Amino acid sequence: MANVPIFKRGEQAQAIRHASRSAAPFLSHLGTPYLSIPAESNGQTTIPIRSRQTELWMIAQFMAVHECPPSDWAMRTARKALEAEALHQGPRRAVGRRLLAPSGNTVVLDLGPGASVEITARGWDVTSTFHAFERDLVNPASLPVPSTDGNASLAPLRSLLHIEDEPSWDNIVTWLTNTLRPAGPYPILVLDGPTGSGKSVAANILKSVIDPGPANVPTSFIRIFDSGARLPRDLAETSEKQPTILIRSAAHLPPHIARRAIVVTLKEITQQRAIRELRQEFLAIHSQILAALCDATVRALAQIHEMAKETYARLADTYAWSKAATFQPPDSEGPARASPRK
After folding, report:
1. Residue 336 pairs with which residues in a beta bridge?
2. End-to-end CA distance of the chain, in Å?
């Protein structure tokens, strides 16, 4: 092992910044300092400067060069320098978790490092254009490229989830299409039903349609609270910014949550299947489900102004968007879909 280098005061902080020179500091649209760093696979990923992920990444960069960890003082100084760069020299960029809306007419869905889907009222396309998405460095949880084979459909998802009645399926589609709305407030999906109805499995599959990976981690876009979880006091407020799934009895919802809720009551599943088998089936149909959701978002962006003129008893934004997303004009061939760019 090489000899441990000796740094004068201040030099180690400079060495940390030099070792981390591939990082580009910038400010989010809300004024939070971020780093854009190279992803392990391809493209760039985004992490907050004031985060454990940034600290560990900078230590790893330093140790790759000097074969020893930096001091705490040097780390604090280097991170302050990065914050100063972001504040005074870096550009401003919109930062999203899985979803970005650069304008009210465009939605960008993060597929993972190096790829995203840009959706407008004219169609959708897979692109490698950089967008600042916050991701977990260890498990970025990538999405598949949406299918362009003409088999886009949400129907396989209905079969997988054992949704038999039309009202329940309509509520699932309403919530799911709203996950790609450019902005909240988002509805809260409540999954009710007896033991053995597959509520937890359904919640994780629905989350995974656009937001795979663990639930309720800092980089999650969609949150899940099961029946044993204590609901946070600010749930109504935070669910306006993040789609949320609750697994619990609809009869015991607090009034302020019930007003924002879309309830689906699942029936007991008599023929139980292994979770691994269900997961494999979902992965096989994921790309066509995602393509159908992208198509629905194209329709919503094109029709939302007309649907918003109608009157709704509650959740007006939610139901207007869902109605626009499922609207199909006569003699329409559907949304334009471009082939993924290489």
Report:
1. 123
2. 43
